[in-house]
Amino acid sequence: MALASGPALGIADFERIYRSLRLIRRAEEEVARIYPSDKIKSPVHLSIGQEAVSVGICDALRRDDVVAPTYRGHAAYLAKGGPLRELFAELYGKATGVAGGKGGSMHLIDMSHNVLGASAVVGTTIPLAVGYALALKRNKSDRVVVAFFGDGATEEGVFAESLNFASLHKLPVLFVCENNYYAIHTPITRRWATNRLCERVATYGIPVHRVENGDVLMLRELAAGAVARMRRGEGPSFIECLTYRWREHVGPNEDYDQGYRARDDFNRWLKDDQVERIGRMMSDESRAQIDSEIELDIADAIEFAESSPFPEIDKLYTNVFAGN
């Protein structure tokens, strides 16, 4: 489905997009650096290499729009405006974290920035996003919801059920599949009878788009068109984003020595690294200033996390039940 081109991007747009890409990249590189020290108290699933998906999509949203990330959710959280300090504090298990230090990396939630909440269970945020979209429609709101998920989540039954329900009721939900080719260590070629995911989704009457090179600007344009369509009450859309994680499935390291994927695949994606691509579209002075500001912000967030207290023991049972 073709989309009309929106207004041309200006310098401020490129700077904003670059800042978001670079912030996510550097924040996660620092997470990878710190992780072996055991200061970070939860498993981490890094989005290094996949930043363009969250940035491209979220840049097309309003502040009051909602995102439902996966457990690989640092990128979506930061791209939606989630505070950096609270992210690091949460990873450290501190009381000042975005989930009070009790959720960790895989359970980021911040409704003040409309981050609906991540889950460690594959595919579970898809129906939650659909439910939130249903509530928005019943309240006659023009807000929209984005459900991020990996290629592995499309194999869960709830994926098909959610597509059908959202299309049937014309709900304002954008389904975004971050297809990085692997469900943990198992490639698509050993899981899917065909790779025609968009074709399968289209049978539900949902407009579909596929971005094969991780182009953050194309993703932004497609998302903007889909969002405009949803605000008009025309129902859901679907974007499949081919991408590639540079680190291991869970943890801070590379894993090309494990025998399930080759470094040559990584090298092909490295040539199209969107952080570097957008950075080259800016002046050297502007890029250097943004880089410097990000380093200061990250250093501040780490210091905040390290100096914050752990949760008090009497908070152990808070938030276990509604209203508690």
In short:
The chain has 324 residues and is of the alpha/beta class. The chain is built from eleven helices and seven strands. The strands form two sheets. A five-stranded parallel β-sheet has the order 1-2-3-7-6, sandwiched between helices. It has a two-stranded antiparallel sheet with strand order 4-5.
Description:
The protein has one domain: Rossmann fold (3-Layer(aba) Sandwich), CATH 3.40.50.970. The chain is 41% helix and 9% strand. A 5-stranded parallel sheet has the order 1-2-3-7-6, sandwiched between helices. The chain has a two-stranded antiparallel ribbon with strand order 4-5. It is globular and about 50 Å long. The chain has helices at residues 11-34, 51-58, 74-79, 84-91, 125-138, 157-168, 197-202, 216-231, 263-270, 274-279, 284-307; strands at 66-68, 145-150, 173-179, 182-183, 186-187, 208-211, 237-242. With 324 residues, the chain is of the alpha/beta class. The protein starts with 10 loop residues before the first helix and ends in a 17-residue tail after the last helix.
Can you tell me the number of structural domains? Answer: 1
Q: What is the typical, i.e. mean, pLDDT?
A: 95
How many strand units? 7
SS strand fraction: 5-15%
Q: Give helix % range.
A: 40-55%
Q: In CATH, what is the class?
A: Alpha Beta
Q: Identify the CATH homologous superfamily.
A: Thiamin diphosphate (ThDP)-binding fold, Pyr/PP domains
Q: How many helical stretches?
A: 11
Q: Give helix and strand order, one letter per element, not per position.
A: HHEHHHEHEEEHEHEHHH
